[in-house]
């Protein structure tokens, strides 16, 4: 950019001045992010496309397969999710551990948070629990995510890690203090992945059969015991084994020493979230265990190594939007941003069909209308319809799976029927038809007939009845243009309605 075009005022890519680059646009101070936040989506979309082919964050990681086994018979009190419905029930899982800021070739012993991402292959679809080894994070608003990660990467001038960038950002972002304290404590450099805990960090929700909603935070407590490096030990390990955590995880599983975690959850009834003295959706805060104790849910065991690292670990794609019936989200702003950012990053890094790759695909029956795109390697839906609604037997919605409505700040978030409060589809098209001259009306009917005349009569009947309700002459004109009598069509519609 030439010097005369530079602006001291931050702008969007299109040059619009930015008035607030600190806070996402939300429904009230604790409410969810709204789609009209053009700045948030521009920043997230641009950030997700900054580097190829490795992940923008969590570039270096290790993966393993395992099983989750239910131990708590009381989970039905909180959720209808079927993976919890029976004590002893097992669900296959895949996990990816990672460092956050380093590149693929970086050391496993850097002082850095560790990613803790799990994919549960349930009978109702995939549940992805995409967390870290810390219960909090550095920021509470997704608008600042790209800015923060830039400080953890390399200086644009020197291409070196920069303590100045890191501490400059942290010193101007006091909400980071909780996570900074954890990062620079003993837990900032875990001794491998087996000896650390995992957390959802974000607040999610669960819904039971009565429609009651409970907010929750997930905890994975290592059964191997917490084990960390000192700063000196971590620095030494870099010179001995840059891949210490990968080495330790892979070979422990190969030896049959299967690592395990106790899976626990904190649960907060929906009503209590409105008055709790801490914002329960703030990613920089924990819920004190004295107020919301850990409830044991089950056990996670890792018992099988991947056969091909690239296919199964590098191409693994986790996204917090993947929840199953009986689970939901919360107005956690950082979570709301990740719901959009993660699948967007996967589409860019792996391609639009990333979720059809074997490691990412559900193990239960599934059916969508998504078609085409690069690297489509399955049957692409065959000769079935690629639109909905359709009358050719394609998969259809099931109202029992509609998300439970949630109220934030006196406003309700839900899937509201766009047909429920306004069923007048006919007045304005009829008015437009009546404004046309007779010859224009005739041409309109002829244009419609050129296509409608080629389809099955049952579809013609439905559509011509719509035209007839706009204006009888409109329906009659189209019927005549395709060589049919309007009386037969109207009668057919009445019979269908009966």
Terminal Cα span: 69 Å
CATH topology of the largest domain: Catalase HpII,  Chain A, domain 1
Radius of gyration: 28 Å
Apparent shape: elongated
Number of helices: 14
SSE order, as H and E? HEEEEHHHEEEHHEHEHEHEEHHHHH
Mean pLDDT score: 90
Helix/strand class: alpha+beta
Protein name: catalase
EC number: 1.11.1.6
GO molecular function, one term: metal ion binding
Region (Disordered): 1-25
Summarize the model shown.
The chain is of the alpha+beta class.
Can you characterise this structure?
This is catalase. Keywords: Heme, Hydrogen peroxide, Iron, Metal-binding, Oxidoreductase, Peroxidase. The chain is about 30% helix and about 15% strand. It has about 500 residues and is α+β, with helices and mostly antiparallel strands. The chain has two domains: about 20-355, Catalase core domain (Catalase HpII,  Chain A, domain 1, Beta Barrel); about 425-495, no CATH class. The strands form two sheets. Strands 1, 2, 3, 4, 5, 6, 7, 8, 9 and 10 form a ten-stranded antiparallel beta sheet that branches. Strands 11-12 form a two-stranded antiparallel ribbon. A hairpin with a 2-residue loop joins strand 11 (about 405-410) and strand 12. Helix 1 (about 40-50) crosses helix 9 and helix 12 (about 455-470) crosses helix 14. The N and C termini lie far apart (about 70 Å). The relative contact order is 0.12.
């Amino acid at each position: 950019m030439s010097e005369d075009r530079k602006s001291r005022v931050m702008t969007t890519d299109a040059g619009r001045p930015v008035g607030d680059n600190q806070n996402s646009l939300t429904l009230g101070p604790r409410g969810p992010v709204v789609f009209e936040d053009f700045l948030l989506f521009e920043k997230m979309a641009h950030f997700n496309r900054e580097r190829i082919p490795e992940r923008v964050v969590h570039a270096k990681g290790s993966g393993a397969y395992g099983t989750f086994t239910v131990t708590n018979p009381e989970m039905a009190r909180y959720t209808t999710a079927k993976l919890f419905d029976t004590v002893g029930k097992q669900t296959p899982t895949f996990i990816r551990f990672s460092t956050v800021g380093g590149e693929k070739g970086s050391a496993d012993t850097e002082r850095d948070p560790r990613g803790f991402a799990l994919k549960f292959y349930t009978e109702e679809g995939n549940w992805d629990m995409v967390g870290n080894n810390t219960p909090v994070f550095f920021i509470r608003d997704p608008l600042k995510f790209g800015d923060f990660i830039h400080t953890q990467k390399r200086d644009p001038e020197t291409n070196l890690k920069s303590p100045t960038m890191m501490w400059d950002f942290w010193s101007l972002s006091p909400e980071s203090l909780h996570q900074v304290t954890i990062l620079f404590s003993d837990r900032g450099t875990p001794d491998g992945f087996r000896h650390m805990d995992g957390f959802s960090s974000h607040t999610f929700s669960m819904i039971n059969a009565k429609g009651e909603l409970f907010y929750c935070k997930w905890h994975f407590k290592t059964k191997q015991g917490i084990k960390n490096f000192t700063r000196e030990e971590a620095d030494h390990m870099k010179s001995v084994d840059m891949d210490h955590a990968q080495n330790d995880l892979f070979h422990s599983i190969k030896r049959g020493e299967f690592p395990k975690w106790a899976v626990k959850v904190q649960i907060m009834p929906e009503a209590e979230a409105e008055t709790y003295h801490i914002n329960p959706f703030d990613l920089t805060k924990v819920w004190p265990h004295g107020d919301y104790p850990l409830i044991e849910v089950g056990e996670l065991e890792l018992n099988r190594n991947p056969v091909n690292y690239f296919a199964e670990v590098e191409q693994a794609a986790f996204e917090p939007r993947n929840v199953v019936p009986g689970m939901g989200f919360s107005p956690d702003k950082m979570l709301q941003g990740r719901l959009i950012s993660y699948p967007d990053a996967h589409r860019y890094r792996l391609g639009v069909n990333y979720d059809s790759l074997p490691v990412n695909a559900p193990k239960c029956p599934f059916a969508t209308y998504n078609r085409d795109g690069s690297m489509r390697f399955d049957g692409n839906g065959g000769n079935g319809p690629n639109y909905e609604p359709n009358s050719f037997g394609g998969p259809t919605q099931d109202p029992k799976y509609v998300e439970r409505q949630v109220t934030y700040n006196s406003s309700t978030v839900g899937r509201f029927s766009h047909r429920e409060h306004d069923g007048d589809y006919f007045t304005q098209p009829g008015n437009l038809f009546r404004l046309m001259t007779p010859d224009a009306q005739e041409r309109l009917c002829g244009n419609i007939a050129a296509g409608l005349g080629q389809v099955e009569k049952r579809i013609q009947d439905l559509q011509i009845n719509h035209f007839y309700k706009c204006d009888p002459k409109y329906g009659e004109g189209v019927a005549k243009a395709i060589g049919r009598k309007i009386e037969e069509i109207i009668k057919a519609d009445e019979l269908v309605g009966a």
